[in-house]
Each structure stands twice: as C-alpha cells, then as structure tokens.
Design goal:
This protein has 147 residues and is α+β, with helices and mostly antiparallel strands. 20% of the residues lie in helices and 24% in strands.
Length: 147
C-alpha cells in the first residue's frame, strides 16, 4: 500500500528541517564568511573631550555672569523686609535721598516695583526692566554718625 503525502505535510517537513538546520549552520566556525568587525573603542577621557568640558565649566550657570548695571536714576535698594510673596516690602532710597517702603506695584521716581527676590528688587519703567541688587556688605560694621 502506497502512502500518499499531502502537500501541507511536505511543506511542513521542509520548513521544520530548515528551522533545525539553520542554527547549526550559523554556529559553525567560518560557515558564514568572515568575522564581524570589532566594536570601536571609545577615546580616552582626556583625548579631546576636555576642551569642550572646560568651556562648559567656564559658562555661568544661570543667566549672565555679571548682571547689567542698573541706570543711575533707578532707586537704590537698601533692604527687603517681610516674607517674599506674602507681605514683603522693599526699602529704597529715592533720588532725593529719602528712604521709602514700597510694596509690589507701587512706584517711586517713575520706577514701579515689579517683584522682589531674596537678594534683589526688579523695577520697570515703560518697557525697561532692571534688577537692583542689595548692596554688598564688606564685613565691617558701618557706624552711624554720632555713635
């Protein structure tokens, strides 16, 4: 009695033989051709990356290195009193030499107090915005006249 093969069984046998034989063929040394190229080695750390990295360290972290000078007619900041974003006021010296307290939104000499930071006040006049920093203390106590 002759065994009659169906075309599906023949195709399944061929695909199965191929699936078993292919990994064996690929694992044989020299069967595929030549070895793959070795992965490129990274350059040593000091071989060219340092100038780029050094330039990154020279840049200022936030904004510009030196803030722009405030115009001479801008109010001088004497101090900041209170809690920022709650009830803080700026103590400023006006152009006539008088010291005043300003809340955000109030103005003196044409300059309006826009906001306060921990170490500066921001004033606006028209389209101009300036940062007026707190004066830098030298470490020596300044004594008032007569004391």
């Amino acid at each position: 009695m002759a065994l009659k093969l169906r075309p599906e069984w023949v195709a399944l046998g061929v695909v199965g033989a191929f699936a078993v034989a292919m990994p064996v063929v690929l694992l044989l040394p020299g069967a595929v051709g030549k070895k793959p190229a070795p992965a490129p080695r990274p350059a040593p750390i000091g071989a060219g990356t340092m100038p780029v990295l050094a330039r990154a360290y020279e840049r200022p972290l936030f904004g510009t290195a030196e803030p722009a000078e405030a115009p001479s007619d801008a109010p001088q900041l004497v101090g900041i009193v209170g809690r920022l974003n709650v009830d803080a006021v700026a103590l400023v010296k006006a152009s006539d030499g008088a010291t005043r307290t300003l809340r955000v939104g109030e103005s003196v000499d044409g300059w309006s107090l826009a906001s306060l930071a921990i170490d500066a006040a921001f004033f606006t006049r028209g389209g101009e915005r300036v940062r007026v920093p707190l004066p830098i203390e030298t470490g020596e106590a300044e004594s008032a006249p007569g004391q």
